């Protein structure tokens, strides 16, 4: 059963739809990777799901169901109570979610005070220490009075994760949580999220442009282009047999470490800006399979098997991707 179900979500900046009819689902205990080039609408989608669209953007259509309840029908106060307690969000830069003027111990204990009503200060601090230890912050007792700038980027991200885990949310939305970190710390952070998921059955929505990380850490994937989902399904199936030319192009751009002589696939051109999207398929100007009908109308999303869907007039043949690419994505 899906914990989060998004149906035909629309978010507009004036008359321009930056998120245009997006639908996807995240099941309890599973991870969904939302991938695509920069500017495809991934972050706006996440913020819109939480009822926090960026300034100048308004959610104007669709349904967002969390455990069967429509979040768009809730009042601001009801949404505020839901955030943090039921749904957490980890941002790309932890300095945007940590107050630089307050020690991290106070920031974590406030979650227990205001979200769970823990009145005793020592009890709150004890739980904060245990939580920091859980996310592998060394000597947590001595770090409660430290300020965010006294931590490294990786440690700040661990603190941000700890704050999100304080109320044991059922869904974690992680928006590019490891982009600013080196590869070793990046893997440590994602390993930590996977451990939390295994222990608590947390559903995770991972927003990223890093396909190898999706291959390694996610169960399902949704590929986004110019404000729309163009393909989605189980990671193994989508990576093995991409049906949308854009998905195939993204996978082809992943370096093959086991085949250094292989030339990377280049997707020609640039994604369209939200205000310049023409009629028809938005990927058509860059697509090697584009035909006349691709320029006249946007293709409807259709099922290609029991668990997969694609929005394309002329999808790729149902043929397996070379094993070298899959091995590279998994490494």
From TrEMBL:
Q: Does the keyword Cell inner membrane apply?
A: yes
**What does the entry list under GO cellular component?**
plasma membrane
Tell me which UniProt keywords the record has, alphabetically. Answer: ATP-binding, Cell inner membrane, Cell membrane, Membrane, Nucleotide-binding, Transport
Regarding the membrane, this protein is recorded as: Peripheral membrane protein
Q: Name one GO molecular function term.
A: ATP hydrolysis activity
Q: Where is the ABC transporter domain?
A: 4-251
List localization entries.
Cell inner membrane
- GO process annotations (BP): peptide transport; transmembrane transport
- Report the main location listed first in the record: membrane
Keyword Cell membrane carried by entry: yes
Q: Which family does it belong to?
A: Belongs to the ABC transporter superfamily.
Q: What is this protein called?
A: Oligopeptide/dipeptide ABC transporter ATPase
Q: Identify the species of origin.
A: Caballeronia fortuita
Read off the lineage from the record: Bacteria, Pseudomonadati, Pseudomonadota, Betaproteobacteria, Burkholderiales
């Amino acid at each position: 059963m899906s914990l989060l179900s998004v149906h035909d979500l629309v978010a507009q900046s004036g008359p321009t739809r930056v998120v245009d009819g997006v639908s996807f689902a995240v099941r309890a205990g599973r991870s969904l990777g939302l991938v695509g080039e920069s500017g495809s609408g991934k972050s706006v989608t996440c913020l819109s799901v939480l009822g926090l669209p960026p300034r100048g953007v308004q959610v104007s259509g669709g349904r967002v169901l969390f455990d069967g309840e429509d979040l768009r029908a809730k009042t601001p106060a009801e949404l505020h109570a839901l955030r943090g307690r039921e749904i957490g969000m980890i941002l790309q830069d932890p300095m945007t979610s940590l107050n630089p003027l307050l020690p991290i111990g106070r920031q974590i204990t406030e979650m227990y005070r205001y979200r769970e009503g823990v009145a005793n200060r020592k009890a709150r601090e004890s739980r904060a220490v245990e939580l920091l230890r859980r996310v592998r912050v060394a000597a947590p007792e001595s770090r409660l009075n430290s300020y965010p700038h006294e931590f490294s980027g990786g440690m700040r991200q661990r603190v941000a994760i700890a704050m999100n885990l304080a109320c044991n949310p059922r869904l974690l939305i992680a928006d590019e949580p490891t982009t600013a970190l080196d590869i070793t710390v990046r893997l440590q952070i994602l390993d930590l999220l996977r451990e939390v998921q295994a222990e608590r059955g947390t559903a995770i929505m991972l927003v990223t442009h890093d396909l190898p990380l999706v291959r390694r850490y996610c169960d399902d994937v949704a590929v986004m282009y110019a404000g729309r989902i163009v393909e989605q399904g189980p990671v193994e199936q989508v990576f093995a047999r991409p049906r949308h030319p854009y998905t195939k192009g993204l996978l082809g751009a992943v370096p093959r470490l086991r085949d250094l002589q292989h030339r990377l696939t280049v997707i020609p051109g640039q994604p369209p800006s939200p205000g310049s999207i023409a009629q028809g398929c938005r990927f058509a100007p860059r697509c090697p399979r584009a035909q006349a009908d691709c320029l006249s109308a946007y293709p409807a999303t259709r099922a290609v098997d029991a668990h997969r869907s694609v929005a394309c007039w002329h999808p790729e043949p149902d043929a397996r991707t070379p094993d070298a690419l899959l091995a590279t994505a998994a490494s």
